[in-house]
Amino acid sequence: MSIVRVALDVPLSTLFDYTVAEGVEVGQRVIVPFGRRQLVGMVMECVATTDVSPERIKPVTQVLHDSAPLSAGLLDLLRFCSDYYRFPIGQTVLSALPVRLRSDKPVISKPILSYRLSASGAALDFETFPKRKVVQRRILLKLAEQPCNLAQLKALSATVGGQLKGLMAEGWVESYSDVHLPSTSSGGCPTKSSMGRTVGDTHKHTFDNAHTLTSEQQLAVDAVTQASGYACFLLHGITGSGKTEVYVHLMHAVLQRGGQVLLLVPEINLTPQLENYFRSRLPDVNLVSLHSGLSEGERLHNWQQAQLGAAQIVLGTRLSVFTEMPKLALLIVDEEHDSSFKQQDGLRYSARDVAIFRANQCGVPIVLGSATPSLESYHNAQNGRYRMLKLTGRALAAASLPKVRSINITQTIMHHGISENLLREIALRIARKEQSLLFINRRGYAPVLMCTGCGWLSGCKHCAGKMVLHLNEQRLRCHHCGYQIRVPQACPSCGNADLHPVGSGTQRVESVLQQRFPDARILRVDRDSTRNKRAWQTMREQIHANEVDILVGTQMLAKGHDFPELTLVGVLNPDSALYSSDFRAPEKLFAQLVQVAGRAGRADKPGEVIIQTAFPDHPLFRALQTHDFEGWAASQLAERKMAGFPPFMFQAMLRAEGKQENEVYRFLNDARAAAVALQHEVEILGVVPAALPRRANHLRAQLLIQAASRKALQQFLRAWQPPLDALPAQKLRCSLDIDPLEF
Ligand code: ADP
Ligand code: ZN
Ligand code: ZN
């Protein structure tokens, strides 16, 4: 009888001890009694003794053998995350697993068969093997290199299925099931290898090397492939500079040495395009994707492929940073500045930061790619913690950067938020059969409805925010809590029938354009118009087929899409971010505008960007015009340094919300008092209302802690945890957010 310490999906920062009769390994899933329930848990440790008294300790109900155990390396990574983000260990471990592995039902996945040479197959003399049996010969040669599944073999020939049967009938090839492979106890990062050294056997695959790299691309590829052990590279390349091409070459280099590559992207919208790009260049490589668009079965299957080392490339969103990959040899984070890498509930991790930690843990290189690096990463590249790799020119010689100019909206004729000049430019593009894109970061018709009689505004009765007018559906909707009502006929306050929409959203821009250009084909792309799963895919095809003249859209349109006929981008309403209370707002706006501007003129047609603003001389727009990221970043960093903000300070935010204002504030004030009493070297700010002080009838407030170093902050947080846990907070929703991005 031995004792196991088990992580369970409960909000307590401890492990739970159970006895177990059969042999069990660390990293295996078990079902255990917990109170009156049976829960699935993860064996974190096998120990000889326990503090639990013999009468009270209970036995494990069942040891699950349906999936290979997690590796020690991955469990270490999860332990680190639980500690760093101050989140219970059990919830951390279980939330990192595919949903199917969190359930107490054994996983019944269809066995994925792999094929390998039998002893007699391996003894065959390939020299004398009949030459006319081309496909059989290819299969045998491939299997002599490595076992393969059917999908991998299909890349050899369309008739592989029948030929394989023939080879099995001869007894030269045998199949076996992948899922029940013996444990991979070293799975996290066993080889401690760099890309410079060989990981296991060498592997052959087809590489369609379509482009000769530019000299800057080649330098970047060489720097990463020559790195030995951990190194973090910041690949700063302007839009269209060919970062993806650099990734392809790096993947090729890693695969040649038998390693696995993990590539993280911010959004599932981007995965199909990238997937196609990589598949076309590395056609017989086993690439799997991991994102929320997959069914649970597909997700589990892909995860297990990675765990077995069969998937050579894993392309995924945030959560896939926790994918088990025994031969992980390179991590890539594309669009590393994107805030979608940060999880905003539960384990509030930054997938980019966890990826960096993981690369370090495994002793392998990591590449962070972006046209507009986060100031955190850029600062680290400047001070030498990361290595900077630059791509300063566009990859296609013909494609030049777009010309950017501002239009002062206070000195020009405006039509419901669109300037006459911009409308004329659009007309010009329509005449030339080119596409235009109008970018506005607000969906709906107008952000608020106002009464001209008494000044009533369409506030949400549950939130501190305003209800957005959705004219098409005749509704007012709160984008914070989802509450909605019909558009009132008259002012609810004074009865006046004269209600006016104030400001513009995508729907209003669309209708203004429809009036001005009745024959133009206008396509609106925002969360409302793409609710349907296939909608966005269809729209993208329409855009590519040049069946659209004018695109109106939110940031969904800004990222990573290649629209060759697009030559004009109009930015409609960027000014609110310039003077926002969120100190990161200008950084986000700059990144967004560079992305959206990067959509213009990617092929052989020059692009133009027009920004409508009341502040045409603002340094942000100046920097955009001159494509001067360096200058912009330097000025922002100087401001951050003066103001004592990240990356010069490290922050943690304690948030609380509840129905009773006094309870929210009592909790935060008590937490603050406990923090002060610890007398650590940290700056403890005051308790203040959240940016949206009331949401869905809950009052919200927050307390910010800052420290000059990560270490000082972590030491403080560890000391603060026990008094925090002791505070009564039954009726509150509380969370601690380390390195918060939202204020
Ligand atoms: P980024 O991701 O940096 O915005 P992409 O990787 O999408 O840029 O590359 C932009 C375009 O340039 C793509 O169509 C790509 O195929 C092409 N490209 C990239 N590298 C080269 C190269 N060395 N030679 C020719 N074309 C290239
Ligand atoms: Zn009124
Ligand atoms: Zn609301």
Topology at a glance:
Layout: E1 2-8, E2 16-20, E3 29-34, E4 37-47, E5 58-59, E6 62-63, H1 72-84, H2 89-95, H3 99-102, E7 113-117, H4 119-122, H5 134-145, E8 148-149, H6 150-154, H7 160-169, E9 173-177, H8 215-225, E10 231-237, H9 243-256, E11 260-264, H10 271-281, E12 287-290, H11 296-307, E13 313-316, E14 328-334, H12 351-362, E15 365-370, H13 375-382, E16 387-391, E17 403-408, E18 414-415, E19 418-419, H14 420-431, E20 435-439, E21 448-451, E22 468-470, E23 475-477, E24 484-486, E25 499-502, H15 506-516, E26 522-525, H16 535-544, E27 550-553, E28 566-571, H17 585-597, E29 608-613, H18 619-625, H19 629-643, E30 650-658, H20 661-677, E31 683-695, E32 698-707, H21 710-726, E33 733-738
Parallel strand pairs: 2-5, 10-15, 10-16, 11-13, 11-14, 12-13, 14-15, 17-29, 20-27, 20-28, 26-27, 28-29
Antiparallel strand pairs: 1-2, 1-4, 3-4, 3-6, 7-8, 7-9, 18-19, 21-25, 22-23, 23-24, 30-32, 30-33, 31-32
Protein architecture, described:
This protein is α/β, with parallel strands linked by helices. It is about 30% helix and about 25% strand. Bound molecules: adenosine-5'-diphosphate and zinc ion (2 copies). One zinc ion (ZN) binds next to loops. Adenosine-5'-diphosphate binds near residues 213, 214, 237 and 243.
